[in-house]
Amino acid sequence: MTTPAPAFPIATILGYPRIGRRRELKRAVESFWAGSITAAELEQAAAELRAATRERLASLGLGRTDSAIPETFSFYDHVLDAAVAVGAVPERFAALVDEQGELDLAGYFTIARGVGDDAPLEMTKWFDSNYHYLVPEIGPETAFSLHAERILAEFAEAKAAGFVTRPVIVGPVTFLLLAKAADGAPSDFQPIDRLADLVPVYAALLERLAEAGAEWVQLDEPALVSESIDVPRDRVLESVAAAYDALGALERRPAIFVAAPYGSLDDALPALAATPVEAIGLDLVRGALPEVLDPATAESLAAKTLVAGVVDGHNIWRGDLAAAFDRVEAVQHLSPSVAVSTSTSLLHVPHDVDDEDALDARLVTWLAFADQKVGQVAVLGRGLTEGRASIEGELAAASAALADRDGAPGVRVPAVRERLAGLTARDFDRVSYDERVAAQAALGLPELPTTTIGSFPQTGEIRRARARLVGGSLTSEEYTALMREEIERVVRLQEDLGLDVLVHGEPERNDMVQYFAELLDGFAVTKHGWVQSYGSRCTRPSILWGDVSRPAPMTVEWSSYAQSLTEQPMKGMLTGPVTILAWSFVRDDQPLGDTARQVALALRDEISDLEAAGIRVIQVDEPALRELLPLKLADQPAYLDWSVGSFRLATGGAVPETQVHTHLCYSEFGVVIDAIKNLDADVTSIEAARSRMEVVDDLETSGFDHGIGPGVYDIHSPRVPSVDEVQALLERAAGAIPAARLWVNPDCGLKTRGYDETVESLRHIVEATRAVRAGLGAPALAGS
Predict the structure, then answer these.
(1) What are φ and ψ of residue 583, in 5° steps?
(2) Residue 780's pLDDT is what?
């Protein structure tokens, strides 16, 4: 830029929850989908939410006019927003774009959710978080063009209300590194090949923002910290230089802040420092400052603003504020211009711990949700401007809370720790897979057995019954009777559909982690602690604060009742130790592996009780196995050792006759295929429908030799797959996987779907399976 960069705000955050304190956005979006509100009414609800967010952030200490407040709102997903802004709309959705190249809200949501035979964008995990993003599809012919009206409108909206905010968009390098090659692209094509064509669109966006009065723009480049990207590292670094040299050379643009959360930039830091960007964000929670800098990099960094991400945006602990300020002061050795920030967007944490009036008061003093973290950033910023002495009171209070937590009852339980210390190698192993297959023949299953992942739709009646139980207007006996009625209905439905291995439908479960958290010692649950998972879907992570143990059986009553209703095998359903950790806010005062083994022992006891009750198929879901995989290659072996080990500890006591299943969804199966093999589950079900069975290529080359169920029904979309579509997916799978090991199932649980679409989809699955069985010469389904 030709004029000096404006000062960067001394205190800021990388992003803020966008669903609303009471999930207002979720309700408005779903009302729009249902046709009960108009697009204009949805826009109004979103504008009110954005206005409330700006006012709240200002009240917590962020500046109104210094670009401290980031504009990170999204109706569905920030990666989808970037794709729409640069014109990367897949060809199958071209008809949704008007003559001016614009996409209305209905079209936007269609790309996210699909329609008819047009599948939505693939969905996968955002780095090592539980947030799911939509994967852009980029090909050699993708015609990039700028469509920045929404970005500009939100900036103008803020300006009209007296705010100068900081627009945020996924950076061009990360956007392409996270994209997939569009169908029909040459085999050697990678989306990053299109960087030279994409950067001019970003340049045009910066110029438009400068015209609108934006002083700073935030370009998020988390892919720069990851070593798990399927592009050579030197190519990534060359792309950083090419993109930011070009953007930095623009004569008229806002100052550029490149944020790189989720880890250390490492070798990307010199590459980024050498470009003309004015500010660089450093994640100093997951990452660290470089130990040594070459003279050129040191000189370049000294001329930039370094934004120290020292407040953990990924967890809810109050933390050590004094240590955080120490890290901020250490950054001052690299540059005289330093600002304080969160390590990541606060997208990953709930809004406000002050809303939690049902949590233990002592526990609350150990916590910091989004609003409290904004307050911490403001305090540290004040310390930077006024000196450490000005914030000694706040630092001391945080240290006192940390010490109180360390000595509180339940944080360390001797009996739990003694049991862990007594484990031996034998506790982690079952007999050989071949022996188990022979023992499990007694289940009498056909080739290509059909099943579901576990949950069935949670109706309004189920949710109301649960709310009445919590509210005291329904007794536990009445609640149990209602749940048993629902279980019987689900069992009879599955028998009617012709499924082979049944589930009880999980009507009694509010959430696949919270259900267990409420029954295990060492956990607490929130009332309003909602976090966006994807689109309008939100989860309420539990808080794992102490040593974990199981006071009593958790699932046996429901599974044994369901099994009593049918002669067909009934699956017992458990959530695995890694997923319980991944989808909770976990204590940060001991290694994750230690905590995972505590959870695993509780699940091991549950499996033993299920077996004693006559359950011979038990599923231990681990959809988050890939999610927690460290972004740095050197850290991955240790993670895979304890994560796989905790699953094997949970299941290692099962007798050979018990068929152990596991499930993984939206997890980039090929990246962790060796780890999944080492889980040693008898059957693994995985997401495959939205990616159109791409996973079978990995299966075919990996030597995976256990039972496998690649999903044939994408439950994250309201689409009902046709029989032909399911059959084509199943035939592709059967071409790579021996029929004796191939299972047929949806991608994931059916909790979020409606009954009409669920029943029709499952009927199509059964019909397609029968057709494929016939083609393989397999026996017909019993009773069909």
Answers:
(1) -105, 20
(2) 46
